[in-house]
Structure to design on (423 residues):
């Protein structure tokens, strides 16, 4: 059916995580490392996916600074997935006309200066690597829902299915049950932790493009529940509240600089690291958001030293984050994909534009482990050599958290915890 007026491409990106989610509880229709990955499989185009990872980190940094600043100013937490957002953005950009695609690729900081087929191959290689090296704990799902009487361009649909493992289905967006069907898909692929993503579907929309990422890991060394006590936590606005503070003594992977102090906690299987960073001086929302730099995280990671004796205090928490990403993306100077009349001609026929990019994320930390559904104005100084072999690191004020896939060095999730009690 030919459209006579500009229509809307709606892009959705969502993610979740739950500590109680096990590989056996993951929906069968989603891809996990135990069903979609062969540990002996050869990952192609090794030279491409590092550029994909770096591009996603640069895009993530560009979004993290304004998004975290806005959340912290409102007294909220910030948590998102650079991988989830980067994947959904790439899937949409591959459907754009030359000028739209070029502008969308610019979000990756020049790292996507590759032929489109190399970008597709690089994303496929990264996805395969993530699934092959995650001990069944990672779940990735991509889908595109297409309005009734609308067809995707055949080449585009094949690209999504080949490189992203995307499911494609038609749906009448004007039907009362359409929103229920999409929400059920998201719920099924997040083990019920995000039961409702949309309030309604837009009858004029062309497509809903969805990416979900779910991760569940357990600490290699669990926290003793008997040691968890109520203690004070001070948020960025100076207000204090009581939290359940976990405690652990032992040997840790630890780093310290003049601006940041951090610890990396190992997980069962060894594929993922949970990295926690406590700013030495940063306290205000502006100072904290300046640390939301994924490139700085890479540098901090290189400063970690093993087997440092210490004592760690970490709040038990569960937080949720949700945001429309369009204002932050427009702040990067990217405008064409959102203007009515711009053409995603490689995706669908007729005028089209992105009208919504919704991102949702959840993080849980408890004595058993971590789960996730989704710096720096400070100088990168050299690490400080400790004068003794022990440290005490107490996360009783705003801190940074990153979940990294070790083999690919991809930062799957990143956030700033401002109030552990706020969901």
């Amino acid at each position: 059916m030919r459209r006579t007026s500009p229509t809307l491409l709606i892009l959705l990106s969502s993610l979740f995580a739950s500590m109680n989610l096990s590989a056996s509880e993951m929906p069968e229709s989603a891809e996990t490392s135990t069903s979609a990955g062969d540990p002996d499989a050869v990952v192609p185009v090794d030279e491409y996916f590092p550029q994909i990872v770096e591009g996603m980190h640069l895009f993530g940094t560009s979004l993290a600074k304004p998004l975290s600043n806005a959340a912290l100013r409102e007294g909220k937490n910030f948590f998102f997935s650079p991988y989830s957002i980067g994947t959904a953005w790439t899937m949409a950009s591959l459907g754009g006309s030359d000028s739209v695609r070029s502008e969308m690729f610019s979000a990756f900081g020049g790292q996507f200066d590759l032929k489109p087929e190399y970008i597709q191959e690089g994303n496929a290689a990264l996805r395969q690597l993530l699934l092959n090296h995650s001990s069944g704990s990672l779940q990735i799902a991509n889908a595109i829902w297409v309005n009734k009487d609308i067809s995707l361009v055949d080449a585009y649909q094949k690209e999504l299915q080949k490189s992203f493992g995307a499911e494609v289905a038609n749906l009448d967006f004007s039907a009362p049950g359409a929103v229920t069907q999409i929400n059920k898909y998201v719920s099924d692929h997040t083990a019920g932790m995000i039961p409702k993503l949309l309030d309604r579907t837009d009858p004029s929309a062309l497509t809903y493009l969805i990416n979900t990422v779910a991760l569940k890991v357990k600490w290699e060394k669990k926290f003793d529940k008997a040691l968890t006590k109520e203690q004070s936590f001070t948020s960025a606005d100076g207000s204090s509240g009581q939290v359940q503070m976990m405690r652990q003594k032992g040997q840790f992977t630890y780093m310290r600089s003049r601006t940041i102090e951090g610890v990396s906690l190992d997980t069962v299987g060894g594929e993922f690291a949970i990295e926690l960073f406590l700013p030495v001086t940063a306290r205000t929302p502006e100072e904290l958001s300046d640390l939301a730099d994924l490139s700085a995280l890479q540098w901090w990671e290189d400063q970690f030293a093993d087997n440092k004796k210490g004592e760690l205090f970490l709040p038990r928490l569960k937080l949720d984050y949700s945001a429309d990403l369009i204002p932050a993306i427009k702040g990067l100077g990217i405008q064409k994909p959102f203007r009515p009349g711009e053409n995603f001609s490689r995706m669908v026929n007729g005028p089209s534009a992105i009208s919504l990019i919704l991102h949702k994320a959840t993080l849980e930390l408890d004595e058993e482990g971590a789960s996730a559904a989704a710096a720096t104005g400070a100088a990168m100084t050299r690490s400080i050599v400790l004068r003794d072999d022990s440290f005490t690191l107490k996360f009783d004020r705003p801190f940074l958290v990153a979940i990294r896939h070790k083999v690919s060095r991809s930062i799957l999730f990143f956030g700033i915890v401002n109030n552990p009690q706020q969901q």
Notes: The domain at 225-315+376-417 is CATH 2.30.39.10 (Alpha-1-antitrypsin; domain 1). The longest helix spans residues 49-73. The chain has two domains: 8-218+319-363, 225-315+376-417. The chain has a mean pLDDT of 79.
